[in-house]
Amino acid sequence: FPETHGITFTIQISVKELLDTDVLLKLLFRLPVNYPSILPDISVNSDQLTRAQCMDVKYKLLEQAKKHLSEPMVHDLILWIQQHLKYVVKQSATVCDEKTTLSKGTSTEDGIWMLLLHLDHMRAKAKYVKTVEKWASDLRLTGRLMFMGKIILILLQGDRSNIKEYLILQKTSKVDVDSSGKKCKEKMMSVLCETKVQSQHKRFQTFEVKEFSTLDELQKEFETAGLRALFSEFVPPLLK
């Protein structure tokens, strides 16, 4: 439904005694017209928390909201998060403390996921590549768009919610042209793998488009990123 329906408002609350600091939470509630029989949409921001922790808070608030369905709930949700914030971020907080003692790069953030997609073809290649680059940049995703012979792979890393958002864009936008030159949606895409980034995987710092002339070169690109297993499981079958 359009943004004009329902109400959107932001509430700032300060939560005391979390890791000995006050945490300022910005909670944005979008109440649909049929609220409270439909859940509100909630966004969480805080300078003191990581993105992963903000996502944790959001999911926990939505879980609570389900318990209050069909009764006004915003006030209850705010009281609940004031009492429970320290428990919600405690798990994430221990991850942060460990991270500082480990050398950088050996630990991965809570919410970082990886997606490997296979595209059948790109007719309007230049435009398609530009679109993928823009989406990756808008959604703060890193990784590679890789061409090798007829194989086209997109490997992405980023927040799980942003990865999901990317998939929606990839499936619903007119990204290519059909044989008659008309704009069309991507119908020949397969999701080869969607998984949490593990500590042995290296994080891509940027999103790059690369062309490879041999399978060996492509394999090296995966191996450099600690993704040898991913390569051997999903890429060779595409050559058959």
Architecture overview:
The chain has helices at residues 51-67, 74-101, 125-138, 160-172, 215-224, 228-234, and strands at 7-18, 21-31, 41-45, 112-119, 142-148, 151-159, 174-177, 183-185, 189-196, 207-212. The chain has 240 residues and is α+β, with helices and mostly antiparallel strands. It folds into two domains: 7-94, Roll (Ubiquitin Conjugating Enzyme), CATH 3.10.110; 112-238, Alpha-Beta Plaits (2-Layer Sandwich). The strands form three sheets. It has a five-stranded mixed sheet. It has a three-stranded antiparallel sheet with strand order 1-2-3, with helices on one face. It has a two-stranded antiparallel sheet with strand order 7-8. A hairpin with a 2-residue loop joins strand 5 (142-148) and strand 6. It is elongated and about 60 Å long. The chain starts with 6 loop residues before the first strand and ends in a 6-residue tail after the last helix. Keywords: Cytoplasm, Nucleus. It holds the Pfam family RWD. This is RWD domain-containing protein 3. One of its GO terms (biological process) is positive regulation of protein sumoylation.
